[in-house]
Amino acid sequence: MKKAYVVAEINVTNPTDYEGYRALSTEAVKQYGGQFLVRGGQRDQREGEDATHNAGWRTVIVEFPSLEQAQRWYQSPEYQKAMVIRQANSVGRLFIVEGA
After folding, report:
1. Which own/partner contact pairs does 96-99 have at CB distance under 8 Å and 24+ positions apart?
2. C-alpha to C-alpha distance for 56 and 92, rounded to whole angstroms
3. How is the chain split among helix, strand and coil, in percent rounded to 5?
4. For the chain, where are the alpha helices, taking DSSP H only?
5. What is the pTM for the complete model shown?
6. Contact yes or no for 11/57 (Cβ under 8 A)
7. Distance between CA 74 and CA 86 in Å, rounded?
8. Which of 26, 64, 75, 83 could form a disulfide with 70 if both were Cys (CB 3.0 to 4.6 A apart)?
9. d(Cα 23, Cα 64) in Å, to the nearest integer?
């Protein structure tokens, strides 16, 4: 079974209220068998445009045992509750990709 990765590029626009998202999303990731591989950290852009990665932008990568499990996590009531907070307090993009 191939692993799957959730990749998100997020610009937090309201750090105070965003903290609620961190707590809820961390628990949901654990509950659905995921683990954080990247959660912020220094970024070294080498190719392509990086207009979205000015101050405030962060990259997050979460590994799940399978594409199906990552999809279950995203659609779960636990993550949906967290997602409402994220969307109200940040802008960005998120996708799920199956590994090699």
Report:
1. 96/4, 96/5, 96/6, 96/7, 96/67, 96/70, 96/71, 97/4, 97/5, 97/7, 98/2, 98/3, 98/4, 98/5, 98/67, 99/2, 99/3, 99/4, 99/5, 99/63
2. 11
3. 40, 30, 30
4. 15-31, 67-75, 77-89
5. 0.89
6. yes
7. 13
8. 64
9. 18
Low-confidence winner among 37-41, 55-59, 79-83, 87-91 (lowest mean pLDDT): 55-59
The rounded distance, in Å, linking the Cα atoms of 44 and 87 is: 26
pLDDT of residue 77: 97
Average pLDDT of the residues in 82-95: 96
Q: Nearest Cα to 38, choosing from 59, 19, 24, 57?
A: 59
Lookup result for tokens 């707590």: 23
Dist CA 89 CA 26 (whole Å): 17
Q: Identify whether the C-beta of residue 63 lies closer than 8 Å to the C-beta of residue 37.
A: yes
